[in-house]
TrEMBL record:
This is Reverse transcriptase/retrotransposon-derived protein RNase H-like domain-containing protein. InterPro entries: DNA/RNA_pol_sf, RT_RNaseH_2. Coiled coil: none annotated. CDD domains: RNase_HI_RT_Ty3. It comes from Austropuccinia psidii MF-1. Residues 9-106 form the Reverse transcriptase/retrotransposon-derived protein RNase H-like domain.
Length: 115
């Protein structure tokens, strides 16, 4: 494998500072607005599930809640599409009260193409 030279110029320094600030600044969670539609985004890995509940207000995506769950030993043997579906079911159950309080619909997003 051929390696490229590492170039750290002014542009790279600027991008690095932006990235560093993003990693050291916690996003502020918003309160749920029942009049706005919600988005539930889920993802599954070999060992865990993760989800984000958010809403869009004036083109800004506002995070409402984050959560993750370590899979149980029996769940580790599931195929990835089953884990993705498990993640959706888990997130909907986790945020059921929030989602039922909405006056609008909500959208579920996952990166699993078979779902």
């Amino acid at each position: 494998m051929k390696y490229s030279p590492f170039i750290f110029n002014e542009e790279a320094l600027s991008k690095f500072q932006i990235l560093k600030k993003a990693f050291t600044t916690a996003p502020i969670l918003s309160h749920l607005n029942p009049s706005l539609p919600a988005i539930v985004e889920t993802d599954a890995s070999d060992y865990a599930l993760g989800a984000v509940l958010s809403q869009v207000n004036d083109s800004d995506k506002l995070p409402i809640a984050y959560d993750s769950f370590k899979l149980l030993p029996a769940e580790l043997n599931c195929e990835i599409h089953d884990k993705e579906l498990l993640g959706i079911a888990w997130a909907l159950k986790r945020w059921r009260a929030f989602l039922l309080s909405l006056s609008n619909s909500f959208e579920v997003l996952t990166d699993q193409s078979s779902l």
